[in-house]
Amino acid sequence: MSFGQGGPQWGSGAQNQDPYNSRQGASDPFDPFGARSSRTGDTPDWAALADASATRARRRRWLLIGGGALATAAIAGIVATAIVSSGDGNNTASGNSTGQLPGAPALPSDSTRPEPSFSSVAPLPPPNPKDFISSEKKDTAPLSVETLFPGKKLTMGNRVYAKGATARTGTCSSATQGALGGVLEKNGCDQVFRATYSKDGIAVTVGVAVFGLEAEAKKAVAQASGNVAPLPGAGVPTFCKGGPVCRFTANSYGRYAYFTATGYTKAKSVTKGDTKAFQTGDDLAEFTFRQIVRRGEAQASAAATAPAG
Description:
Layout: H1 46-94, H2 129-132, H3 145-148, E1 153-156, E2 159-169, E3 176-177, H4 180-186, E4 191-199, E5 202-210, H5 214-222, E6 227-228, E7 247-253, E8 256-264, H6 275-305
Antiparallel strand pairs: 1-2, 2-4, 3-6, 4-5, 5-8, 7-8
């Protein structure tokens, strides 16, 4: 029923109850991004509103991330520019090219302290021990029976030999048998030292002939004929006389020639296969050689440690 044209309508839902004049399909005044509400009567579209809110949140987050990245890049660029500018200023001031580091500062030197000095002359090599026993001019250490054959016994390995009689003579031929005396005299022999050792019925006499030079001793050994005379006494009976065969050796080292005469103290000959007699003679020859070597070593050591004159 109408009370006049243009008046309000009463009755069936024809009256517009939306004060914001919203219509289905029209833009929602609360949705600035254009989300539309699907209404059933007067009920708002909650799903659409939720989607719009999520969209706004995502956009806000991406805007924050992008803004932070741009700010970081800008700060890094400013720092790099400042470093480069600072480097250019330092290089320009010091006159160095780009990329070069400044050198270490020079340390002050203490001119009051003397600097170490080193000799340009190479040190002399140590003396050769053999040089001291090859010539009487250098071989000046005391020489006697006791320096060559010290003590009352001799030990070689597990073998012990008792020392018997000893002798020294300036007449070299008197200490020999056969032609050896003439050979020694002819080559300039100065003196002969002898000592006898014994063990288990075997005796050995060692004779050391002393020359002025090494060459003389070598020549005497090369020409040797005959042998050194066995020296009995001091508990050792006569040996190597009256028929039994003995063993004789001759060697030299430096200016010393040394000879051995090995035989049994009873009437028994030394044969080629007699290892016991050979061992005894070789032990005494080895001992004599070592004594001569030690003599050279002792004098060389004393010369090396002596103060320069």
